Amino acid sequence: MLSFLAPALIGISVFLIYPLLSAIYFSFTRFDLLTAPVWVGLRNYEHLFGSDQTAWKAAANTLWLVVFLVPARMLAALGTAMLLTTVKRGGSVFRIIFYLPALAPPVAATIAFVFLFNPATGPVNELLAVFGVDGPLWFDSPEWAKPSLVLLGTWAVGDLMVIFLAGLLDVPKPLYEAASIDGASSWQKFRFITLPSISPVLMFAGITGVIQTLQFFTQAAVAASVASGQATTGGGISSTFGYPDQALLTYPMHLYVSGFRFYDMGYANALAVMLFLVAFAVTLVLLRRFRVFVTGGERG
What we know:
The chain contains 14 helices and two strands, in the order αββααααααααααααα. It is mainly alpha-helical. The two termini are 30 Å apart.
């Protein structure tokens, strides 16, 4: 048995346990890749919790995205999947159409989205002007930058839609027929048949969505760079992180800046360890909450 598990155990040890233990050790040191690590005890964590206001701003932005982006993506994907289950003809064509945005590379999709929402020349504000609405500054506004990222996230939900669609098609139709005979409304069918039946899919989408959003980086970095109008490459790319007014600065971006712009690798490892602990704790809480939702609070 052990010989069959050996490849998996080696992979887990080399690519998960060893890097994790190394990150924990280096989080108690100070080094910059050119010098040997120096043990500094809890100094990195004292700086994180005591004086690094940028880290808390980045954590607040990331938490905001978790609270709004994850439910928005799940609702958009679930709504689209439910609509597709009602299509009688040409369903496969609509599935392809709704899935296509998910195939676009995140960098290219973000660049296109920022240009669409350009407050001066973008077609979105021009369309709003036709109806007499003065469009906001979108990615150039500290108030609208994060909601604009949520719109970007709900635009490409094809990957999540496919998972929800598979779950919805697997719900036994006799349950709906029996509910119809008993006079159940559409909301009652959705609440007492659909949601419990696809609860494992909801749990998977919720947990993976939270973990992915805690690592939110590419879209925020590209949107800030394009919206700022600064063409930066290489190490200078991080100079535009957070534009405008740190509204798009996420926790992983602050970690990147600490490690690869200021070469404060010890502190970057401390940030990474805290991100891992938060993701682990959130996953445990969500697993427990979804288990209560599925079983209705019954003890197993």
